[in-house]
């Protein structure tokens, strides 16, 4: 029985600038994104009937949700419907989601799961889908899903659908931290008092860590001030990470996950031990950020 396994890496918004809002309510963004080499895992295999199973430290939170709203199932159904319009039939599939990332935490967990499901099912069903069709499916699932399909360093504009790969963004050791508090993304965007912030400027042309750290430190996350008001633990978390010697600390996405950048994975792993001793009930994960350099 054929089986395919796809990683669904955590998405980290190194910077997120809110540059406008469309008439349909979608916000326009300019965001610098990388991915961790840690995250959820999707496994798909042929089956007699469709099924979804769950495991992992945060799976119990998904079990409480109505399954039809799960992005993994929406990705399966969206791909199947697109293939059906092309006259391509698809067999039932059993999908297993190993949920290692916190829920609704600003690191694209659900979007990464959906993207990994699409990649895995395309392999399992042996279909050749053009990039435009795949992009359309991904965008219907959510603005972050096209970015997560790439799972490589990138800059995204528009509502997140215009993606530019960044092959010179270097690797960092990275900490992901979350106080295990959910923050409502719609509430954050609604509370913004300004939606026309400047876009991200010129990016380094080299792969030098110092050049990129300086550039990223000059950027910002325009959602962070509002998120800090709604979730005061974010301020505590960023201070704790900064105190471990992180080169840069910031909130990712709409929170509440925050990250710290380090020169090496070893420094990040050492910092995680310190943070876990201080806040044993919070989520901390050391990882490498992915890089093509």
From TrEMBL:
Metabolic or biological pathway, per its Swiss-Prot or TrEMBL entry: Isoprenoid biosynthesis; isopentenyl diphosphate biosynthesis via DXP pathway; isopentenyl diphosphate from 1-deoxy-D-xylulose 5-phosphate: step 3/6
Name assigned to this protein: 4-diphosphocytidyl-2-C-methyl-D-erythritol kinase
Species of the source: Rhizobium oryziradicis
Catalytic reaction annotation: 4-CDP-2-C-methyl-D-erythritol + ATP = 4-CDP-2-C-methyl-D-erythritol 2-phosphate + ADP + H(+)
InterPro entries, A to Z: GHMP_kinase_C_dom, GHMP_kinase_C_sf, GHMP_kinase_N_dom, IspE, Ribosomal_Su5_D2-typ_SF, Ribsml_uS5_D2-typ_fold_subgr
Family to which this protein belongs: Belongs to the GHMP kinase family. IspE subfamily.
Purpose: Catalyzes the phosphorylation of the position 2 hydroxy group of 4-diphosphocytidyl-2C-methyl-D-erythritol.
Active-site residue numbers: 11, 144
């Amino acid at each position: 029985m054929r089986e395919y396994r796809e990683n669904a890496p955590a998405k980290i918004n190194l910077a997120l600038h809110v540059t406008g809002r469309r008439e349909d309510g979608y916000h326009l963004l300019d965001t610098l994104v990388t991915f961790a080499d840690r995250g959820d895992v999707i496994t798909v295999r042929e089956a007699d009937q469709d099924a979804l199973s769950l495991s992992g430290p945060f799976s119990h939170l998904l079990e409480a949700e109505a399954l039809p709203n799960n992005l993994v199932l929406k990705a399966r159904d969206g791909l199947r419907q697109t293939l059906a319009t092309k006259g391509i039939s698809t067999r039932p599939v059993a999908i297993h989601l190993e949920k290692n990332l916190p829920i609704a935490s600003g690191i694209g967990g659900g979007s990464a799961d959906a993207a990994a499901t699409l990649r895995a099912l395309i392999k399992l069903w042996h279909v050749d889908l053009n990039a435009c069709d795949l992009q359309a499916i991904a965008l219907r699932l959510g603005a972050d899903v096209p970015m997560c399909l790439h799972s490589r360093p990138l800059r995204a504009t528009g509502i997140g659908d215009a993606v530019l790969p960044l092959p010179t963004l270097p690797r960092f050791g990275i900490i992901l931290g979350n106080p295990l508090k959910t923050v409502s993304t719609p509430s954050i965007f609604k509370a913004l008092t300004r939606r026309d912030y400047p876009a991200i400027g010129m990016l380094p042309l080299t792969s030098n860590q110092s050049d990129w750290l300086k550039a990223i430190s000059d950027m910002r996350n325009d959602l962070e001030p509002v998120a800090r008001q709604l979730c005061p633990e974010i301020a505590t978390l960023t201070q704790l990470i900064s105190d471990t010697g992180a080169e840069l600390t910031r909130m990712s996405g709409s929170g509440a996950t925050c990250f710290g950048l380090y020169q090496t994975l070893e420094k990040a792993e050492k910092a995680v031990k310190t943070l876990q001793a201080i806040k044993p009930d919070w989520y901390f994960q050391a990882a490498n950020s992915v890089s093509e350099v």
